[in-house]
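User: quick one
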Amino acid sequence: MKAFLLLAHGSRRTESNVEVIELAKRFHEKNSQQFPIVNAGFLELAEPTIPDVIDDAIKQGATELFISPYFLAAGTHVVNDIPSIVATTLKDHPLVKHHLLGHIGGSDAIVELLLNSTLNT
Amino acid sequence: MKAFLLLAHGSRRTESNVEVIELAKRFHEKNSQQFPIVNAGFLELAEPTIPDVIDDAIKQGATELFISPYFLAAGTHVVNDIPSIVATTLKDHPLVKHHLLGHIGGSDAIVELLLNSTLNT
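Assistant: Done. Structure below.
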């Protein structure tokens, strides 16, 4: 069973964290067949934490994790912190597959998304 | 003549700012006919500033600005700071049209972008 985990930095502003959680919900609504488990986790300043959502997904029966760093730039959080936390958390679950996806700022599709945003004005 | 201005927060990490500038370049390469002028500007910690890129676009002949806040969440920067800086900078240019686009985290297309990122693993 596949899980999609959206990992954000976390903010002191509750509204920003809620926006990430809402995005995960929208993702789940559209893709619940492919990803029965979807959750948002935070690196710092908010909960649930990244280990929380990984452990939770595995408890719910996830066998394959798609881990999506919801960051605009490939800073040290994306390059070092998140891979390290994911590896540590998964150490005791050798049978769980995981895919660490690219941060969204690096995707080619972001250019198209920006162009499309100019069409609705 | 249309200009597309990508406005990011700005970071102490040069690499993060460079990534925003590179994204603006990729946008320009793909859409130079529609948007002859494309630039990236920063709210703080990096240059060029937002007034810089607006003034510069107008000097280059832009008559219609598409202003894209490159933020994941609609925090106070997106809701207050950027609209205020844009309005102040454009006060002396009443003939220049502008469109303040939504921040990318709020777009419906982001869900699709996230799904597509799971397909290339």
